[in-house]
Amino acid sequence: MRDTAAVNAASASAAPALERRRRWSAPGWRALRRNRGALAGAVILAAWALAAALAPHIAPYDPIALVGASRQPPSAVHLMGTDLLGRDILSRLIFGARLSLAIGLISVAIGLIAGSFTGLVAGYYGGRADGVLMRLVDAMLAFPGLLLALVVIAALGPGLLNVMLAVGVSSVPLYARLVRGSCLTIREVEYVQAARALGGSDRRVILRHIVPNVLGPLIVLSTLQVGNAILVGSALSYLGMGAQPPTPEWGLMTADGQAYLAGAWWMSTFPGFAIFSAAMAVNLLGDGLRAALDPRSISR
Amino acid sequence: MLAGAEAGVTTPERIAELRKSMGLDRPLYLQYGGFIVHALRGDLGQSIRFQAPVNDLIFVASLQTFQLSLAGMAAALLIGIPLGFIAGLYENSWADSAAMVVSLLGVSMPLFWLALLLILAVSIHLQWLPAISGGQPRGIILPALTLGFVAAGLISRLMRASLIEALRHDYIRTALAKGLRWRAVMAKHALKNALIPVITVAGLQFGGMLSGAVITETVFSRPGLGSLIVKAILWHDYPLIQGAVLLTSVSYVLVNLLIDVLYAWIDPRIKYA
Q1: Whole-number mean pLDDT of chain A?
Q2: Out of B105, B113, B249, whose CB is closest to A143?
Q3: Greatest distance between any 2 Cα atoms in chain A
Q4: Which of A56, A100, A249, B75 shows the greatest Cβ crowding within 10 Å of its Cβ?
């Protein structure tokens, strides 16, 4: 359900892009920097990225070692308390940032590459390829949201790599439809027809005309999809189908703390907040990008 | 299912017998073909774990999920429509900001975390509602709030935009100009017209709740299609997974189709060629 909103939003900015190429033009860039929400999102995201990159240096403890008593409340020694086995929750969160960001980026890369390619072939070449590919995409769209990822996990088995694959595969329809739609419109535009009439190769038309036109909406969709991938990935781990213990994955940590919610609220609350903050940061940034890349919203 | 459960020991003969009785000795394409043929006849096979027909298991579970989805939709509409309506009437007011925050939280909060926060606040601290919704009617409130939250955010945002759009129309000015009370115009003319796109999106969200139910039912330990799918995957109960997933996606597609049809009925301006 979140996905359809993302596609509508992304394709809304596709149409005006046709009229004039305005990808990273100055007004768009300025609008993005002036957008306080997007700025906040970028800062939070940068903080998580920094935590992920420097994890071994800034984490106070080993994320997997038993470094304290079981279920210690937050204190000066353990800022976010310890979990059931006496592991430091803050250290686990810092290392967990690596996994969540990796899930977000890798699964989006899978969906982006596979989906755009599918959409390009279907939209540009049309004909039978279009028919076959789009029926496949329609079949994938028959599974609501999380369910498609669950089906992939059911077939491949649990594990972090499979989670990335599952989340990536389940976003293929979104990219395929977006790129196909843009291709269909752009293919008929006069300057593309002219380029073809002048003997421009498919390769040239695709790279010079189609890719620049679809880039804006693709960037917006991909950004928003990173947030969605972080949420779905952690949900799969929460359900026990992603990361396995003792991996410091946020969704798994939230699930671990659930049984001790009454006595040790910190065990679930902090990891859940980490997922929320990362997903919200990406969404804020994505909304800002959408506003910046959509010429109609600049004047506002 | 354990091969040695009955006899206490697992012999190769017993394993072979089980494989034969479950049809696992046949080649894959025959197994799959058999599944399709039976499924078309309405028989989804036997659950490995429960040793019971998949049909019965998913039918019982789907009733629970349907109930939860209805409650979730009710929660989404009860939060989303008033919030979006006030936000649209008074742009840049507190209600406008609240609607923005709810919709941002809706797309950014992991459902399981939202559920745990609700349990922590409402069940553990305030002790108003049970954390595990076993049987009692009150037990559905927290799961419904969790499930409806994402949709509430979307609905409030759309309601706001749609109302602002409706207020610009001439019929609103005409109604006010001929002396109708402001309240009556807002309630009858503006709200009615603004609701049309909201209903469509709400319908699509209803289909999406089937996937939200996977998380919600698991957190609140409610029996249902969503939690059944999760358990079936963890148990490697493939006939059950196939059946439950099939039923979910068929319902999802049917709900979306129904919304399309309903939409033309609600708004006569829309005609399908």
Answers
A1: 86
A2: B249
A3: 75
A4: A249
Match 């009617």 to its residue by tokens: B137
- Report helix angle B225-235 to B54-89, nearest 10: 130
CATH, domain range B54-272: 1.10.3720.10
For an interface test with B, give the residue of A93, A146, A269 to mutate (most B CBs within 10 A): A146
A146 and B230: CB-CB below 8 Å? no
Ranges of residues in chain B whose predicted pLDDT is under 70: 1-9, 133-135, 268, 270-273
Range of the domain at A183: 2-299
Q: What DSSP designation does B179 have?
A: T
Q: What is the ipTM of this complex?
A: 0.85
3-state secondary structure A145-159: CHHHHHHHHHHHCCC
Q: How many domains does chain A have?
A: 1
- Average pLDDT of chain B is 85
Candidate from A241, A251, A276 with C-beta closest to B233? A241
d(CA A9, CA B9): 60
Q: Mind listing the pLDDT tens digit for each residue in A259-280?
A: 999 889 999 999 999 999 999 9
**Helix B94-108 and helix B54-89: axis angle, to 10°?**
150
Are B116 and A2 inside 8 Å of each other by CB? no
Domain(s) labelled CATH 1.10.3720.10 in chain B stretch across: 54-272
Task: Say yes or no to pLDDT of A120 above 70.
Answer: yes
